[in-house]
Amino acid sequence: MSLICSISNEVPEHPCVSPVSNHIYERRLIEKYIAENGTDPITSIAFSENGYYLATAADDSSVKLWDLRKLKNFKTLQLDNNFEVKSLIFDQSGTYLALGGTDVQIYICKQWTEILHFTEHSGLTTGVAFGQHAKFIASTGMDRSLKFYSL
């Protein structure tokens, strides 16, 4: 029986198992490593579908990308000053990473470059989600609206 890790305020006593790769990850070790290698509070977190990668957003307007197989920060996306990230999500194929916060930004994971940028919310974006096959993305915001964007 495998235990799937979920993000909460509770630290599980048992290791987490990726449902795709069946790799075992000890959440406490991941949290400890990230805490020791970051300087600002983490505001959002997302696992890639295959369980190999983790994206963390921090108050310093950056998104760090981690290879969980090596416990290594392999890329840092430095966003514009004062960019607030409130939500991160990988699509199901692992092709895209979406950021929601000051705006909505979509990155292609192979190059980690921004490919789309949406500014339709009049307040902070609080959530982002990919639709089926990443054909569209939805976002919610402090302006009490739900927006849909075609990819």
Automatic annotation (TrEMBL):
Keywords linked to the UniProt accession: DNA damage, DNA repair, mRNA processing, mRNA splicing, Nucleus, Repeat, Spliceosome, Transferase, Ubl conjugation pathway, WD repeat
GO cellular component: cytoplasm; Prp19 complex; U2-type catalytic step 1 spliceosome
Single GO MF annotation: ubiquitin protein ligase activity
Pathway it works in: Protein modification; protein ubiquitination
Placement of WD repeats on the sequence: 35-76, 118-151
Biological source species: Myotis myotis
Subcellular location: Nucleus
Enzyme class: transferase
Catalytic activity: S-ubiquitinyl-[E2 ubiquitin-conjugating enzyme]-L-cysteine + [acceptor protein]-L-lysine = [E2 ubiquitin-conjugating enzyme]-L-cysteine + N(6)-ubiquitinyl-[acceptor protein]-L-lysine
Record-linked InterPro entries: Prp19, RING-Ubox_PRP19, Ubox_domain, WD40/YVTN_repeat-like_dom_sf, WD40_repeat_CS, WD40_repeat_dom_sf, WD40_rpt
Name of protein: Pre-mRNA-processing factor 19
Family under the similarity heading: Belongs to the WD repeat PRP19 family.
Subunit structure: Homotetramer.
Broad class of the protein's primary localization: nucleus
Task of the protein: Ubiquitin-protein ligase which is mainly involved pre-mRNA splicing and DNA repair. Required for pre-mRNA splicing as component of the spliceosome.
Any Pfam family matching the protein: WD40
One Gene Ontology biological process: protein K63-linked ubiquitination
Enzyme Commission number(s) of this protein: 2.3.2.27
Domain U-box: 1-43
